[in-house]
Here is the input.
Amino acid sequence: MKRLTCKDHLASWGLCSLLVLVGHCGASESQSNGPGPDSARAAQNVHSITLPHFEPDVPLAAGRDEYLVVCVSCHSPRYVMMQPFFPQRKWEETVDKMTKVYGAQMDQEQRTAIVQYLVVTHGPDSKRAAVQDEDSDFGPVVKPSALTETAPPLIVPSEGAQHTKQIEQGAELFKKDCAGCHGMTGRGDGFVAPVLLRKPKDLASTRYSLVLLSQVLWNGKRGTAMPSWRSLPQEDLSALAAFIQSLHQQVDQPALSAEGLQRGTQVFMQNCAPCHGIAGDGKGTAATALMPAPADFRLKQPDFEYILQVLSNGIPGTGMPAWKDQIPEPDRRALAAFVRSLFKESSL
Amino acid sequence: MKTAFSPARNAMNRRKFMRALAAAGAGGLILPKVTAAIPEMPTGAEQLVRFPEKTDLILRTDRPPQLETPLKYFREDLTPNEAFYVRWHLEGIPTSIDVEAFRLRIEGHVEKPLSLSLAELRRNFETVSVVAVNQCSGNSRSFFEPRVPGGQWKNGAMGNARWTGVRLRDLLDRAGLKGGAIEVAFNGLDRAAMPGTPNFVKALDVDHARDGEVMVAYQMNGSELPMLNGFPLRLVVPGWYATYWVKALSHIQVLPEKFHGFWMDKAYRIPTSPDGNETPEHLAAETTPINRMSLRSLFVRPEPGEQIPANGPFEIQGLAFDSGIGIQGLEVSTDAGRTWLNAQLDRELGKYSWRRWRFRWNPPSRGKYQLQVRALNRAGQQQTTSLWNRGGYMRNVIEHTEVEVL
Here is the structure.
């Protein structure tokens, strides 16, 4: 049997989606040749369920960021919580198994941090460790995350043949590594998407700066299933960034009057700044308690319509609530325009 | 004693968060939902959750789902579909199936590859039914000592159902096996999240696949399969552990050689010793893919912690099964294994079904008792008192349960 690779899966999944689409549009009459109780079901073409979420949060301790970035892509933190309290050697074995056998992406530094985290929170001495730490607000020896600092810059030419080639290369990588969650066209609708509480980003709805893409590709996105891809060569990361940027189509966004922008500023300062920061940099006073962290609007510029949608509905699984009952529609439009104005072209 | 998940810790986090919000000092601030910021306490108590098309089941983990059947559902011969346990391996589990567009492909070393719609499958092949136990290889893993990693099941990663579908043999014969077919591999619609994760594919020897008992089922207990139990099709391998019962089965590949894949070559393997036993100090050098289910018997009542009234008889209940040889006898001890008495076996629903049993007990006095149960099958096999292997598979030891008569 031909050894199936992930690319094959994605290709066949793509084909399958197409078939589903064709079947759905083309089916005009139902075939009810099944036994009694099934005929009713057969009349409906598509049988779907929506998975509920019981995803727990995880205790604070050193290594938590690395654990969240690397491990939660494939399974709930609950999978670890249900395990017995194992000694360090057993956790090392288990973490190595995840890398070697299941293809988890992590470097040596992350491996060490994750093992340390598992031993502290789920090792033989985890109770003692917690007691020692009773007086501290934020858990045992929380070290500042090393993960959000050192993303190397990506190199993406703004145009030309080399840029085109880079986008093509990025598209291939994207299909292989990203489409499972983000979908073949980056719309956030990959086959894994239905099971994730924090939905994969719709990459076509936002203009991303290279600065942000390098940070997220390098570090993963804490509190979401987005893992770190720092094990990929720098050239591949750059190609991925080029491709992701190419997914966004510039569309005309509604222009707003100076008064509109002023109103947007007011609404932002009153409602959004506590989390997103006065400068819109995601560093509001409440931001430290939130995971995933609030968006930094200097580094990404969501489309107007996308912002309106988020303001109406919130983002499930994050701290972003729905605002449609709190902020009237004209104010939401003003706010959307203001948020877009925060983007720094220089970060591109 | 406080743990890393203690309420005090949570309170502190909340305090800190509230301080942070207060410091924000914004008038008319609306508190965002911050469920993500406040750690939950795993208390050891079992949490019941309800997934689509399922009743309240014990949450082992939520993604991919592992849901255990509460013991009370085993007081019936057949386990209701909504109460049947759930266990998936890969993150991308199917949640939506177009029943018109779905195709089961049968390919590989065959004369005529087939691509069958669900309607064709039902219309063009003889319908067959079997009552069979489906038991996770790791059922009861949490009782292993020393403990082993993996899904921490108690005894509820199993169920007994009437499976209806078509014989795998009929499908393979329609496709026409070419000479030299060795194995048949089975793949479902589940997909891994990460490119490096091995796809979940299982394989059976071609003679086993053509034995006329292995089935592609489209119904359990007279209804369609719940999505989480493998809608629209599931492989049924009577007498074998559930790892082979591939869910959302979509692709059958006939091979002219042995199948090699992670889930056969590296995972779900047991020591080659007859009972699958090894010790942590002396791990077996040779392993083989897990296969037929071991003989086992279990208590259903009393449930752990259930109190028994001193006045009047109490009916102890349970079930027993093996890989299809058949239960010959069932003995219960109410004195920690010193003496044994025969229990009464319920009717047999087929050789792959479990067989329920009951034992009328008049406790001689108030106090604590240790109950034990052991089965004997028609091949003369008996249960043993201890079993350990690194995978936490095939637990089938003589079960104990402690009860208090009040």
Confidence is low (pLDDT under 50) at residues 1-43 of chain B. The CA atoms of residues 333 and 339 of chain B lie 6 Å apart. Helices of chain B lie at 7-24, 118-124, 168-175, 206-209, 262-265. DSSP finds five helices and 26 strands in chain B.
